[in-house]
Amino acid sequence: MTESYVYAAVRTPFGRFSGALAGVRPDDLAALVVNGATAKAPGLDPKEIDEVVWGNANGAGEDNRNVGRMAVLLAGLPTSVPATTVNRLCGSSLDAAIIASRTIETGDADIVLTGGVESMTRAPWVLPKPERAHPAGDVTAVSTTLGWRLVNARMPKEWTVSLGEANEQLADRFGIPRERQDEFAARSHDLADRAWTDGFYEDLIMPVTVDREGSALTRDEGIRPGSTPGKLAGLKPSFRTHGTITAGNASPLSDGASAVLLGSAAAATRIGTDPLARIAGRGTFALDPQAFGFAPVEAANRALKSAGITWSDVSAVELNEAFAVQSLACVDAWGIDPSIVNTKGGAIALGHPLGASGGRLIGTLAHRLKESGERWGVAAICIGVGQALAVVLENVTGTGR
Fold it and tell me: Which domains does the chain have, with CATH numbers?
């Protein structure tokens, strides 16, 4: 079997719910990063892209079911470039990269463009169809932005609690207090602001024009410079009267898109650039739906086993911060140095547009390894309804651990 490599990564800045990207359709966001990724491949003839695999957690509105294909068409790629859209909720674009890497390794493709998009702002309300003609009663429009909807009555109630309540249960289970969560969240904002100030994101971000006057979003909109545990301590709990989870220590609803270009070693000449990293291992895991925040623990352990390394070899971790409490639970379980986790900020500060976050993790991790010269990194993400994914990257020029 051949090996699969990350050649390029790009994303939009992530916008706040009802923020700067509220007026931009998700298919347009996706098309933007499709063009952005191909622009980072100076030798690539777009017709040589064998497949596009795209992540999206919604699909109920302007995503138009197969937003990957919509992005290909809107980006002006040849109509001969095929595209599929995958939905593993928060893990959709990381799943897209996993699918693409397997496709390359089995020899079914040489060049695959992956990514994902979500406009949580523009996610529509939906109405269930009546079970009989001419019903006399009212119907309720259901938001498709986040979480369970139109739940099957046969689902056990303990499985269908809100995402916040599920993570309050994690806080109870592992004894993770509010203070630790607020400290973790403040760190996320501080590191994200520092990474932007230091120019880390300049090569990863492409601005998004947001109005006819040419105004553009150029930086992640959710970062709060100067956040401190003391300031976050003043926020009210969101899910329990005396709970620990607030709007400050959980990821916000967001809009944005990401793209990652993968290829075989033999594709380097046609792509026109050297690879950034090798996809060295993959892991998936599932458990009880309400415990989804803890699922990355085993997913990452499996990815490490697949790569033939252990946590002692790892120098960089990108863990999606759905909630501070679940991130802390995972880091504690791995027994790793917290200082190697999300050193450029995480989703609490940057945002979490569901279908795009996995691509952000891959791109950030590859660039962290390139910057540091270290060899091994792990990207992991928890997924609603009790799942998680993880990928191990190897810096192809790395000399460190």
Answer: 4-122+251-393 (3.40.47.10)
